[in-house]
Amino acid sequence: MKVFFNYLIATSALIAGFSSCSNDDDLTGKGGNPTPNGKATTFTLSIAQPKTYAVDMNATADENKMTSVDVFIFNDSDVLEKRERLASSDFSSSTDNEYTANRTIATTVGAKKIYVGVNLSDELARDVASRGLTAIYQVSSANDLMNPANGFAMFSKVASNPTFVEETDATAATANKVSATVSRLLAKVAVEKGAGLQYNVLGGTVSDLQFSLSNITKLYYMLPSASTFSPINTLADFYKENSYKAVNANGTAIKTANVSYALENASAQSLEGYSTYASIRAKFLPSKVVKLAIAGDGASGLVSETAPVNPQTFYVVSNAGVKYYFIDQTDAAAYDATINGITPTMSTYQDGYCFYKAYLNPAHNYNIFRNNLYKVNITAINGLGQSGDNIDNPGHEISKPTNITVDIVVEPWAENTQDSEIL
């Protein structure tokens, strides 16, 4: 099973006034009913985006927009005192990267721990309030955290720890202001053709490169901690995208590129079936096709068949390390049974598609982190891919592929680019 650790990249700063923050490992973030205590006071909230984020060439308008802000106020015993939601209309822009709330938020005096969620659905915001921050959350897909109506979900990187004072206190102007940092809960992936992409494929040609993501986890934490190893996933806790999109041309701007999204997926070890990867498929057109000399007679020998003009379903049978391409399924099966007996090798390439894997972020144990952009540059295709997007050895260490070469780079969002040769 895969054990997750938590790693965060900050993308925007939410300034609710105070500046002290913590990332306490003993933080429990218990949910529960509001339990206000102490004298009443208020604090102010503003949202600041760093300059580098404000001009982020990797972010679209949808990825940047803010529709709502949920402020979660916990006491110093990690019990929720209050959740308050602010709309985007509650803020005005003070600079090109800072937004200040038009109203204050009521609370009580004393030490607090405050977390901020941006663009959370109503259901998720209620769950955080009732279940707390250490609960394991689950989605049906990454789409749940990038709903067009809500925007991309973001959450605090660490707790903010102010000590609020009464409004009449001489220090209230500074004490009753809070700073928090949020990041998008998703990672972003783009695949493009590398400059000078090499096609080193014997026996045919490849075309129509497409990609999707596979082995995407459904489980996550709202507030990861650098020392926490969870949640624990089973194979059932992963899914794959249900459609492919065109691989981007070399140099395509990320704002206009085809991209996919996945939840953070990081662990202490890299295992097949548990690490997220880009599934790349292509159409393969064999240059030489064979058939049986006598149809259906596997012992009758092979003769040349007319090669197809366009990619179509074909079958591959291996004999002593040599691949033979068939158009006729019956001939392929008969030849396979004769040559390979009880250890058949026949593979079916439906509609001519072959598949390659590009595991993401090899420099960091194939872990992917929230708010990172992973760019996969395909630099070479070195052979025929698999007949399907399958996990061959779940639970085994990921081995470096010999049939694809990729280069991966991470930039903000944070981008990670890798060059990949595929086979």
Automatic annotation (TrEMBL):
Keywords, A to Z, come to: Fimbrium, Signal
Q: Which Pfam families match?
A: Fimbrillin_C, P_gingi_FimA
The scientific name of the source species is Dysgonomonas mossii DSM 22836
The main location class comes to other
Provide the Major fimbrial subunit protein N-terminal domain boundaries.
Answer: 55-170
- List the GO cellular component terms: pilus shaft
Where found, per UniProt?
Fimbrium
Please give the family membership noted in the entry.
Belongs to the bacteroidetes fimbrillin superfamily. FimA/Mfa1 family.
The molecule here is called: Fimbrial subunit protein C-terminal domain-containing protein
Residue ranges occupied by any Minor fimbrium subunit Mfa1 C-terminal domain in the UniProt entry: 348-419
Q: Which InterPro entries match?
A: FimA_N, Mfa1_C, Mfa1_fim
